[in-house]
């Protein structure tokens, strides 16, 4: 559990359009890494290339290497489906399966793997996953109600529970709080702090305070202009990025002078 | 007294009224049409169940006449559905989730073209091509599966059986079900599809987890629309089927459907006669069957509302 992620000269394309260029980055296991940068700078695109969700779009492809504990996930012999069972993802908007109950949502990943669970096993998985997502106390009496009946923040925590239920090595979060109110946001941020003990967490956020609060390391992405590829500008300890940035553009961004 | 609150955009208000009146009258018009159809059928079918010179009510006589036709109609429509629904869902899925984008448009057009072919053409095709082509298959079914009542009885020598009619109906309702399903499959939220993919679902698993649950109501609606057309289809069945007595065998000649019976019988029924009333009365029966089918579909769809994703 919990693997490190290394990108080596990674280019990400949409058809012929180069969206992200020349990424070299080493992301630590059991830590929270934040991606920040202005809109359209390629941070979400790069994040989606980490579990091969990028290539779901027609024409989207990747060049370069992406190593999960040294193994290239873009090796021709690798099935993207396998990658995605090891690298989980939480999306910008909460997306529990609307036709499933809360319980079924948590167990959805197991159902996919074809695992045969006894009743007690599945009860245990549901409870531990919901407890780890800080949702158990709120939903334990209505596990058979639809997941879509929960509030936005609860739905997002349900999605996190669904993701950690299958025990991935890495959890990707694409602006997980952008659709949530401040109190739900706080609940998710607390949760991210706890997840870091067991998982490699990578989070894209537009909220710089959030990056400062939850992450140990921060990567700043930027683009030179519209139609140009996004690049990794600076990657360092979060305190260093926010207090003593090395690059001028990083300093401008974190001090709120642009973006 | 006029204040800024009582003054309003007069033209906007008038437009609002006109539009609301238009929509209300459109809605009322539909209900009125339906009511008049029901009224017309009911009034004119009176003679079929009540005859003074035969001693009043002759309901049993009418039911004896009607039930083979009802069963024939249901059998033909059922065969059509069994054949068409899986194919339609498959084609719709291929267009929405498997085919390369450029190809999928083309296939969509071709399927829609199927709906533009007049039903009499289907009937002619079923009578002169499909029927004869199915004769050897009927013979084989009879020889090898003859112990099943469905395939007992002498196989038809012309191929113009209820099964052939069902196949023709199946081809006819394919485009309706396909286009309804395709539209609804395309509308599956990307968010739900990606939720499944991100959990490590293959494409087929993603379809089972996200697309089908989302589209469930739409698939049922599409199938019911198709069933509605199959129940009411006249020309094709009248041409394909050589009608006869009710029989359990699908491969012998025999059986008939309500629309075919009306189409074949009406020109020969003297106006105002009992025979005409009888034909109108089975029309009413068909009307009720269709109504029942639609209401059942609505009920099925609404049963799982809470889990539909609409909330």
TrEMBL record, chain A:
Signal peptide: none annotated. Residues 5-248 form the ABC transporter domain. GO terms for biological process: phosphate ion transmembrane transport. Keywords: ATP-binding, Nucleotide-binding, Translocase, Transport. This is Phosphate transport system ATP-binding protein. It comes from the Bacteria. GO terms for cellular component: membrane. The keyword ATP-binding applies. The keyword Iron-sulfur does not apply. SUPFAM superfamilies: P-loop containing nucleoside triphosphate hydrolases (SSF52540). One of its GO terms (molecular function) is phosphate transmembrane transporter activity. Pfam families: ABC_tran. InterPro entries: AAA+_ATPase, ABC_transporter-like_ATP-bd, ABC_transporter-like_CS, P-loop_NTPase, PstB-like. Coiled coil: none annotated. It comes from Nesterenkonia sandarakina.
UniProtKB/TrEMBL annotation, chain B:
GO terms for biological process: phosphate ion transport. InterPro entries: MetI-like, MetI-like_sf, Phosphate_PstC, Phosphate_Transport_Permease. It comes from the Bacteria. It is found in: Cell membrane. GO terms for molecular function: phosphate transmembrane transporter activity. The keyword RNA-binding does not apply. The keyword Cell membrane applies. Pfam families: BPD_transp_1 (PF00528). It is a multi-pass membrane protein. Keywords: Cell membrane, Membrane, Phosphate transport, Transmembrane, Transmembrane helix, Transport. The chain crosses the membrane at residues 21-45, 65-95, 107-140, 160-181, 211-231, 279-301. Residues 70-297 form the ABC transmembrane type-1 domain. GO terms for cellular component: plasma membrane. PANTHER family: PHOSPHATE TRANSPORT SYSTEM PERMEASE PROTEIN PST, PHOSPHATE TRANSPORT SYSTEM PERMEASE PROTEIN PSTC. Part of the binding-protein-dependent transport system for phosphate; probably responsible for the translocation of the substrate across the membrane. Belongs to the binding-protein-dependent transport system permease family. CysTW subfamily. This is Phosphate transport system permease protein. It comes from Nesterenkonia sandarakina.
């Amino acid at each position: 559990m919990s693997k490190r992620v290394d990108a080596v000269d990674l280019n990400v394309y949409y058809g012929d359009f180069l969206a992200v260029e020349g990424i070299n980055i080493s992301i630590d296991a059991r830590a929270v890494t934040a991606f920040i940068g202005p809109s359209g700078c390629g941070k979400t695109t790069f994040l989606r290339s980490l579990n091969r969700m990028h290539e779901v779009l027609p024409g989207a492809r990747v060049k370069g290497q992406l190593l999960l504990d040294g193994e290239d996930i873009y090796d021709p012999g690798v099935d993207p489906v396998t990658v995605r069972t090891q690298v989980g993802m939480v999306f910008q908007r909460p997306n529990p399966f609307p036709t499933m109950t809360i319980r079924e949502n948590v167990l959805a990943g197991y159902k996919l793997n074809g695992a045969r669970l006894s009743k007690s096993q599945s009860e245990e998985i549901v409870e531990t996953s919901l407890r780890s997502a800080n949702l158990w106390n709120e939903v334990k009496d209505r596990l058979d109600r639809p997941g879509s009946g929960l509030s936005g923040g609860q739905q997002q925590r349900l999605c996190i529970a669904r993701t950690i239920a299958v025990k991935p090595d890495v959890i990707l979060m694409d602006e997980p709080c952008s659709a949530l109110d401040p109190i739900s946001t706080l609940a998710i941020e607390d949760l991210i702090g706890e997840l870091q003990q067991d998982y490699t967490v990578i989070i894209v956020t537009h909220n710089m305070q959030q990056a400062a609060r939850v992450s140990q390391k921060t990567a700043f992405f930027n683009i030179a202009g519209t139609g140009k590829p996004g690049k990794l500008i600076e990657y360092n300890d979060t305190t260093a990025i926010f207090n003593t940035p090395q690059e001028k553009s990083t300093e401008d961004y974190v001090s709120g002078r642009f973006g | 007294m006029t204040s800024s609150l009582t003054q309003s955009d007069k033209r906007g208000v008038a437009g609002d009224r006109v539009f609301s009146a238009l929509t209300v009258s459109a809605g009322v018009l539909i209900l009125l049409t339906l009511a008049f159809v029901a009224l017309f059928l009911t009034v004119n079918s009176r003679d079929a169940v009540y005859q003074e010179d035969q001693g009043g009510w002759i309901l049993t006589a009418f039911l004896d006449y009607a039930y083979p036709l009802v069963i024939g109609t249901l059998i033909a429509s059922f065969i059509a559905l069994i054949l068409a629904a899986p194919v339609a869902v498959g084609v719709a899925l291929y267009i929405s989730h498997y085919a390369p984008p450029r190809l999928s448009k083309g296939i969509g057009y071709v399927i829609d073209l199927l709906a533009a072919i007049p039903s009499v053409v289907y009937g002619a095709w079923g009578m002169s091509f499909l029927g004869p082509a199915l004769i050897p298959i009927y013979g084989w079914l009879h020889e090898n599966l003859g112990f099943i009542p469905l395939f007992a009885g002498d196989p038809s020598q012309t191929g113009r059986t209820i099964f052939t009619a069902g196949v023709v109906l199946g081809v006819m309702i394919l485009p309706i079900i396909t286009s309804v399903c395709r539209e609804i499959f395309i509308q599956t939220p990307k968010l739900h599809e990606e939720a499944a993919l991100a959990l490590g679902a293959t494409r087929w698993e993603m379809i089972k987890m996200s697309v089908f649950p989302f589209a469930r109501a739409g698939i049922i609606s599409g199938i019911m629309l198709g069933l509605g057309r199959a129940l009411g289809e006249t020309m094709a069945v009248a041409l394909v089927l050589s009608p006869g007595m009710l029989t359990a065998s699908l491969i012998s000649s025999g059986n008939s459907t309500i629309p075919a019976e009306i189409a074949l019988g009406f020109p020969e029924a003297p106006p105002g006669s009992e025979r005409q009333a009888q034909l109108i009365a089975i029309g009413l029966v068909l009307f009720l069957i269709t109504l029942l089918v639609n209401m059942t579909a609505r009920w099925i769809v609404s049963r799982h509302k809470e889990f539909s994703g609409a909330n």
